[in-house]
Amino acid sequence: MPITYYIVLSSILFVLGVIGVVVRRNAIVIFMSLELMFNAANLLFVAFAAYYQIITGQLFVFFVMTVAAAEVAVGLALMVAIFRAKHSIDVDQMSSLKG
Amino acid sequence: MDTLFTLVPWVVFAPVLGILINLLVGKRLGEKAVGIIGSLASGAAFIISVILAVALGQHPEGVVHPLAEWMTIGDFSVRWAFQVDTLSTTMMLVVSGVGTLIHIYSIGYMHADTHHHGDPGRFRRFFIYLNLFIAMMMVLVTADSYLMLFVGWEGVGLCSYLLIGFWYEKGEAGLGNARAGRKAFIVNRVGDFGLLLAMFVMFWAFGSLDFATVFAQAGTVAAGALLAITLFMLLAVTGKSAQLPLFVWLPDAMAGPTPVSALIHAATMVTAGVYLVARSQPLFALVPAAQTAVTWVGALTALFAATIAVGQYDIKKVLAYSTISQLGFMVAAVGMGAVVGGMFHLITHAFFKALLFLAAGSVILGLERGHEAALNGQHLRHDHFDPQDMRNMGGLRPRMRITYWVYLIGALALAGIAPLAGFFSKDEILAAASEQSLAVFIILAIAAFFTAFYMGRQLILVFGGKPRTRAAEGAAENSPIITVPLIILAVLAALGGLLNLPGLHWLETWLEHSLEGLSAGHFILWVALLSLAVALLGFWLAWSIYARKPRQKPAEPDPLAAPLGDIYRGMERKWWVDEFYRAVLLRPAAWLANLLAGPVDQGGIDGAVMGTGRLARLAARGLSLLQNGFVRGYALVMLLGVVAILTYLVLR
User: Fold this and answer.
1) Which residues of A touch B623 (CB under 8 A)?
2) ipTM tops the 0.85 cut
3) Least Cα separation, residue A94 to chain B (angstroms)
4) For the segment B104-130, what is each residue's pLDDT rounded down to a tens digit?
5) Residue B210 dihedral angles phi and psi, to the nearest 5°
6) Whether B638 contacts chain A with CB within 8 A
7) Which of B237, B260, B563, B574 lies at a CB distance of 3.0 to 4.6 Å from B273, suitable for a disulfide?
8) CA–CA distance from B641 to each of A30, A60, B5, B638 (Å)?
9) Distance of alpha carbon B387 from the chain centroid
């Protein structure tokens, strides 16, 4: 399969993720959209790694996955804490720091 | 080399040791011990000075004793070294000798003074300041370079300021003494600036500030530079030695306690200017124009201040103007190159003027005590009574016998009655003037006449006649701790003339080792007779005006007021010099300061600074609207930003 297919698929996934982050108000869904963007990038990494026969891309995907896992753990912990305080995870209501 | 010379740093460190002891443990030792330690510290400096003088008898060429490296900048280095020669040792002897007597006197005087003002705790502070002054004066006179001299010069100025404002919360409107201290400090700053400028020019011209280097190369430098150096030095002299036009601080400096007036503002510090010119004689000798300027400044000051002294009623103010006048004599003498005459008068003046001030302090104490006795335990506020006003005195002769006799000796010595000290020293100056400039001679002779006149007036007002107030009636002699230093000083004032007796010229041969090209002062018979006649005439006139019809009540006008009219008012009001300065210098300066503080600083500069701040806050308020708190909005902006940057990078 030509590399173009991977690029197009990855781009579609990334844009979906972006739209999800910008449009949705539920924090959980926003996290899921973020994961989508991560994985769009991961897909490109492995695609090009295979294409150029370089192992570095594969390695980097593992790295991204660990970081993403850590980020989700922190993020979900924050969500739990916010939910306890506000009984909601609507991001539009988290605006105490506005100027 | 004589090992005795290595003692010289102790003339500075002995008083410093006194300061440390009094500062650290003085409070626990009590008043008496503080006074004794202070006096011992000063006395030790005197003993070392005597030892140095003895050593100089063996090695009259002197020595420069280096103590420490101060700073090194490139190939320019400054060290702290002590110059021991006959000139500096003479000053050391005068400063520490008179200083020690005044320390002893202060034990008695300040005990009474601090109790009178109701703050005995300040006794210790007084002795610490006094020791600091001795140390600083020693730094000044032992300096081997203009830079170290300047350190001492500033140091004594600081002590002067501290001691004038010793009772800083007292005086007119609770501020008078503090104001007097500030005035002295600021006026002195003008003069000190002159010395600083002289040093700058000197460094530019010679590349060094050491006496030895500068004097050795003096002949090789451009005449213009020398003229600038000497004239700036003259400015410094007018500040420190209270000459025209910067003399206005010295009369106000009488706000300090009387021993301070005696030590700093009569005997020692104010003579620093004379010492400076005497020390810099190799420079002045090359610039006749500067010498003429110095001479005229001195001569005019001598006359000007002497006339003002005639119209004063404050016992210390009379002596203050007399000091200015006598400093004028000395400055004129060193200006004419008659360094020996100037130094001779400096020494004798230190004796008799310190004596007069201390005796005046004794009179003031006696009057204060008489006043308290008159009140007889009534707890009245007695602020309206001025124990320094001579109109409140009178008839003190039988009540304060010792004080009267020493005062008489001091006054006669000051007026130049033979054979007391002042006769010989003043005569030497007059003789030098008669050989150089007739005009200067006449001015100085008239000043000498006024000197005798105002001293006669003061003697009669204070001691003659009958007591004019109950305070004067109840005045009594002071304890020996006060009278003994007076008696010693009186002996010195009487015999001080022996130092440089015509024909013997001990002082001249002594100073010759330090100063080149000295000429022995001539004794000119007609000058001596004339100065004696002038002095006697002054006394006779004072007697006939003031003693024949003695003042009965304090409030009477002066007998001179009616016949002299506006002239007398001018003498009384100090020729309106203060008013003149206020109108010509202070008012414009205050106006300029107000202008700079108000419209310029608060309006312009503050406006610009505040405006910047206000602008930043305004911008922040506008921009903070962007922080609307919607996380998704931020994400969108971030996205758009990334897209924009990427677009730019791709399409570039």
Assistant:
1) 99
2) no
3) 7
4) 999 999 988 888 888 888 899 999 999
5) -70, 140
6) no
7) B237
8) 20, 26, 84, 5
9) 23
